[in-house]
From TrEMBL:
CDD domains hit by this protein: MFS_SLC46_TetA_like (cd17330)
Species per Swiss-Prot/TrEMBL record: Urochloa decumbens
PROSITE patterns associated with the record: MFS
Residue stretches making up the Major facilitator superfamily (MFS) profile domain: 45-488
Keyword Acetylation: no
Membrane topology type: Multi-pass membrane protein
Keyword Transport carried by entry: yes
Protein name: Major facilitator superfamily (MFS) profile domain-containing protein
UniProt-listed Pfam families: MFS_1
Subcellular location: Membrane
């Protein structure tokens, strides 16, 4: 009898669910209410995130096919072997600018909201991408790329926004959107850059040499991207804000504290949340910081590859390259981007669901090391055989890179609460951008160096180039193990 009474008394406690309170006029609460009422995938919001992130990708990827020729035409390099050196600094300037300001933009997004930061970032893309296409000398190109990065806080803000508009079970899909839009950027960007750069030479009937496109041969691809940015900027009028704007009073150290979450009607739960999350230092969050380091290593590899691959592919065969044209490289990147889109949409979510982000990252790191070993031998191929092998290898390499990057993003966003998410993603973008700023500079310097050692006995020319990239992937592999990588409680290494 007593035991039955105890069971009857305990049952209501197990069934009790705190009442959720939504504050009127709070955009974050409005989003939470919509998520609670419909637990399906928010396809329309996902598409808007995807298309906005494409704006970030296009100015980066569009210069890959023509940067080698742009540096040549700006006449800053005294020798052919030095083109890669100067190209590296142009590629790094955007990332350096982004590295210096991304944490600041993340803090702004946590303070005033995601939407204003996103819209301002698109506006700066529109302005400085146009000016880059009108560069009259090397230093103008360098400065406009730097400003393009430093005044743009889109990337970290979008990553935070992506996980805030959907349920936790859809976070992997949400973050993979960043990779799929990059995939489309790899299709459209290099295609735009490869086919529209130097239009007076390729399409003299449409673009006479005495037109503005004759004076500025790399303006047309930038202009096309600028028009796209303008259209997307107008579409952001309908972008929904996700930041919570209501305030809770707490009679302790601070009078008022903005908390970005849904609240139950229990004061005890609210106070516990504030105590655990308010003013928690991101730098002391070991799961966050260790996953950011993994992110930086993978981003360094990805950016170094994107810088080195077109330089290597377009350089003359006498220097260990493939002797391809900008159109050929643009086509390779386009096919690669298409493969990333298909992989991230249909394959990656299932892989990470079965294996988990950590195990997936380990397999990817080993596979990438094996693949990079095969690149130097492609110089012995030609014709259709070279084209087929190069496209397959590039597609596999890019998919391996975005896999480990997306896995690290999942670990990062699982390591923080919403009130710190934009700042955390801004911090990740800052550190990642530093690594991506170093990658083109280092890649350009190494590329120029290996071109001068074609006859070396140990790892001559391009063999040394890809061997050094293998070392970086080995470091990524090591970082996926303890004690380097700490996992948040809700993640699993399996």
């Amino acid at each position: 009898m007593d035991s039955n009474s105890e069971g009857e008394a305990a049952a209501p406690l197990l069934e009790h669910k705190p009442t959720v309170v939504y504050f009127e006029g709070c955009p974050g609460c409005a989003i939470d209410r919509e998520k609670a009422e419909s637990r399906g995938i928010p396809y329309l919001r996902f598409f808007h995130i995807w298309i906005v992130n494409l704006v970030v990708c296009l100015p980066i990827s569009s210069i890959f096919p023509f940067l080698y020729f742009m540096i040549r035409d700006l006449r800053i390099a005294s020798r052919v072997e030095d083109i890669g050196f100067y190209a590296g600094f142009v590629g790094a300037s955007l990332m350096l600018g982004r590295a210096l300001t991304s944490t600041f933009w993340g803090m702004i997004a946590d303070r005033i909201g995601r939407k204003p930061v996103i819209m301002f970032g698109i506006l700066t893309m529109l302005v400085f991408n146009t000016l880059f296409g009108l560069s009259m000398n090397y230093w103008m190109a360098l400065a406009t790329r730097f400003l393009l990065g430093s005044l743009n806080g889109l990337l970290g803000c979008l990553r935070a926004y992506a996980v805030e508009v959907c349920q936790p079970e859809h976070h992997a899909i949400a973050l993979s959107l960043i990779s799929t839009s990059w995939a489309i950027g790899l299709i459209l960007g290099p295609s735009i850059g490869g086919y529209l750069a130097q239009p007076t030479e390729k399409y003299p009937n449409l673009f006479p040499s005495n037109s503005i496109f004759g004076r500025f041969p790399y303006f047309l691809p930038c202009l096309c991207i600028t028009v796209f940015c303008f259209v997307i900027l107008l579409s952001c009028v309908w972008l929904q804000e996700t930041l919570h704007t209501h305030e809770l009073e707490k009679q302790e150290d601070r009078a008022t504290k903005t908390v970005n979450c849904r609240f139950s009607d229990s004061e005890e739960i609210v106070e516990q949340y504030i105590t655990l999350n308010a003013n928690k230092s991101l730098f002391k969050n070991l799961p966050l910081m260790s996953s950011i380091i993994l992110f930086c290593i993978a981003a360094f590899d990805d950016m170094a590859y994107m810088e080195i691959f077109p330089l290597w592919a377009e350089s003359d065969t006498s220097y260990g390259g493939l002797g391809l044209l900008s159109e050929d490289v643009g086509q390779v990147f386009a096919i690669t981007g298409g493969s990333i889109l298909l992989y991230q949409t249909f394959i990656y979510p299932h892989i990470v669901k079965i294996l988990g982000p950590v195990t997936t990252s380990r397999i990817v790191a080993v596979s990438s090391m094996v693949l990079l070993f095969t690149y130097p031998w492609m110089t012995h191929l030609s014709g259709y055989c070279l084209s087929i092998v190069l496209n397959i290898a590039s597609a596999i390499k890019a998919n391996l890179a975005v896999t480990i990057i997306t896995c690290s993003l999942i670990l990062q966003n699982n390591s923080v609460s919403q009130d710190q998410r934009a700042t955390a993603n801004g911090l990740a973008t800052t550190l990642m951008s530093f690594s991506k700023a170093v990658a083109p500079i280092g890649g350009g310097i190494v590329f120029s160096w290996v071109q001068k050692r074609q006859q070396a006995f140990f790892l001559p020319g391009d063999q040394m180039l890809f061997f050094l990239m293998d070392i970086n992937m080995f470091l990524a592999l090591i970082w996926t193990f303890k004690p380097f990588l700490a996992l948040p409680e809700q993640s699993s290494s399996s």
